[in-house]
Amino acid sequence: MPDKYVTLTPELYAYVVEHGAREDDVLRRLRAETEELGDIAIMQISPEQGAFMTVLVKAMAGRRALELGTFTGYSAICVARGLADGGQLVTCDLSGDWTKIARRYFEEARVADRIDLRLGPALETLRGMTDEEPFDFAFIDADKSEYPDYYEECLRLLRPGGLIMLDNVLRSGTVLDETDDDPRSVATREVNERAIADERVDVAMLGVADGITLALKR
């Protein structure tokens, strides 16, 4: 079977961003400000992934969304913009400093009224929720070492037909290195194996950015 992928050069990737993401002034400025934080900016999702998330949530007519890992708010804005009228995103993070930036841009993007930002350990937040008001969409992009637990909790809180998106499932290629015993890599490999074998979901892994997995609850 021939390879069915294109290796992205910097020039080709720039083309993808230019033609695959309608990044407005708010998102451009947020991305630029986040880049000024230094190496930690790698935690911000890419423009084309953000555009994909907006389209995906909009196509689902999603009204309730969940996010683990707010950071400076780029992905939250993308999800919130895809929600149906009256929709709400619950987004979780530990950092008051990063989320100060997020709150400011939520206001500028005019989505603050549909975002419920909760500070604290994500697992504690999840375990404090009931499934009485299930979510349509969940984006997992927090502490990689807790991915298996996040996956289970999000699956519990999703409605049938709801969708989980797991970010960074390729770990820059280290998922192939079985000698890499970093807890984040171990947990990522575990959740990848769990999802593909899980009969509770339909699953697709995509080579977008650092790899994403979509798990649709049956």
What would CATH call the architecture? 3-Layer(aba) Sandwich
The SSE string, one letter per element, is HHHEHEHEHEHEHEE
Biggest sheet layout: 7 strands, mixed
Strand residue content: 15-25%
Q: How many individual helices? A: 8
CATH top level?
Alpha Beta
Distance between the termini: 31 Å
> Can you tell me the residue ranges where pLDDT is under 50 for at least 5 consecutive residues?
none
Largest sheet: spatial strand order: 3-2-1-4-5-7-6
Indicate the structural class.
alpha/beta
Structural features, described:
The protein is an alpha/beta fold. The protein has one domain (10-217): 3-Layer(aba) Sandwich (Rossmann fold). It is built from eight helices and seven strands, in the order αααβαβαβαβαβαββ. Strands 3-2-1-4-5-7-6 form a seven-stranded mixed sheet, with helices on both faces. Helix 3 (47-59) runs parallel beside helix 4. The longest helix has 15 residues, at 183-197. The two termini are 31 Å apart.
